[in-house]
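Inverse folding, one chain.
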């Protein structure tokens, strides 16, 4: 944390500008060594300064240099950003000069890591930064910006505040045991507060299902026998010829992937190899892979032919997916119907022709209905979205159950307090009030280099 770091913050390639970011106590002095213009150590904070970057006497580039002085910066350290002309050679040369003159190359996510360690942001906000960079839909952008601005963090901080009040009352009971009525009042108060906190945690967890959906999208697989129209349906959904379509069975031997946005939610679609018994080794591997994907899928699109009777393999798969989120697609309804399905009411059914764009819209509407996509609020995306924070909140709920169980069993109030403090600590891990070095290193290593 005492050294000065530098990295390229824009995508490396041909472009109008590149930004090389420097953060640390010696930022101004190091950049000054290669910059000709105003003395950066004497300029006002949050100013842009025109000049040139030199390697000794050799002119490297004409630049604009932004100077931001601590503590009013992203990292709460002195930050200098060099805006150069875009291009791989020029950008790399400026970074090289910074490293030669005393900077260290930043590790992935190190700027954001310093912002966290210096108290500028919490862990939810830090995760939001990466989610904002990776957002592909308007809903995912709104979800991320609520994390970045602290709106999501406030949900957890408010819960911790309620717990502090409860813990304070318990301390009074422990400190003044001679007053018999205090314990009775304290237990009554704890029950009331726990009920309130429990309901809020349950509500956050329920809402966070939407957050996970918005952030990660819906993992969707298309399965079925060869030549039932799986690849045609994929191409229609994506509105491009992504998968090869032929009359030859076994054309699709490996998975073909693509994604679309439905009501602001990504559908991550995988077209799989046609499921059938085969002696072809390559095709057989594809079939096994198709069947294995069923377990991890959020949505299964099972396609059957309207003009064919179901065989044993069809019936086996129908039985396998009946308790999963799935849609039974009866394709080729423009042909004579021969299909017969028992207990069809157990499935979400779409009858369609992959050649008809209007039928594809019917399929999309069914997906929207199953996942209640229209009810996911566009404006108030204040949800937890990371697996880390959601799992910690679930653990906090489990500890809260232990508190309630302890009160029912009339355990000593100081024993109840231990479980309640555990809830408080787990909530602190979500925002980063409590953390381990290993967690921080792992989390920020997933960031891009200049962020």
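Residues assigned per position:
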């Amino acid at each position: 944390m005492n050294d000065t770091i530098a990295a390229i913050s824009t995508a490396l390639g041909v472009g109008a500008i590149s930004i090389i970011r420097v953060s640390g106590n010696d930022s101004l002095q190091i950049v000054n060594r290669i910059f000709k213009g105003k003395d950066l150590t004497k300029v006002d904070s949050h100013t842009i300064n025109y000049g040139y970057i030199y390697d000794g006497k050799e002119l490297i580039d004409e630049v604009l240099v932004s100077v931001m002085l601590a503590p009013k910066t992203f990292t709460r350290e002195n930050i200098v950003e060099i805006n150069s002309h875009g291009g791989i050679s020029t950008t790399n040369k400026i970074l090289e000069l910074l490293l030669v003159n005393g900077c260290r190359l930043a590790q992935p996510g190190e700027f954001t890591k310093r912002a966290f360690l210096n108290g500028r942001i919490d862990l939810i906000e830090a995760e939001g930064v990466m989610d904002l960079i990776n957002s592909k839909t308007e809903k995912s952008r709104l979800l991320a910006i609520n994390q970045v601005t602290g709106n999501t963090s406030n949900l957890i901080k408010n819960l911790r505040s309620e717990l502090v009040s409860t813990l304070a009352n318990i301390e009074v009971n422990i400190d003044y045991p001679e007053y018999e009525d205090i314990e009775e009042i304290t237990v009554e108060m704890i029950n009331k507060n726990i009920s309130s906190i429990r309901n809020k945690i349950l509500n956050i967890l329920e809402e966070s299902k939407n957050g996970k959906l918005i952030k990660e999208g819906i993992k969707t697989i298309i399965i079925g026998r060869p030549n039932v129209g799986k690849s045609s349906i994929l191409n229609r959904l994506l509105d491009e010829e992504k998968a090869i379509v032929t009359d030859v069975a076994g054309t699709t031997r490996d998975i073909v992937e693509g994604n679309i946005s439905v009501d602001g939610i990504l559908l991550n679609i995988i077209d799989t190899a046609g499921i059938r018994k085969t002696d072809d080794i390559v095709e057989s591997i594809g079939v096994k892979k198709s069947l294995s994907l069923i377990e991890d899928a959020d949505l299964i699109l099972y396609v059957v032919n309207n003009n064919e009777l179901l065989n044993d393999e069809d019936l086996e798969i129908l039985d396998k997916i009946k308790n999963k989120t799935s849609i039974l697609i009866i394709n080729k309804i423009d042909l004579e119907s021969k299909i017969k399905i028992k207990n069809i009411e157990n499935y979400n059914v779409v009858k369609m022709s992959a050649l008809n764009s209007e039928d594809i819209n019917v399929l999309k509407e069914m997906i929207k209905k199953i996942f209640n996509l229209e009810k996911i609020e566009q404006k108030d995306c204040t949800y937890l979205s990371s697996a880390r924070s959601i799992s910690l909140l679930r653990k906090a709920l489990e500890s809260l159950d232990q508190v309630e169980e302890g009160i029912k069993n009339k355990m000593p109030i100081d024993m109840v307090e231990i479980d309640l403090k555990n809830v408080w600590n787990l909530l602190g891990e979500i925002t980063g009030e409590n953390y381990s070095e290993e967690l921080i290193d792992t989390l920020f290593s997933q960031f891009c280099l200049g962020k």
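The two ends are 16 Å apart (CA to CA). Confidence is low (pLDDT under 50) at residues 243-254.
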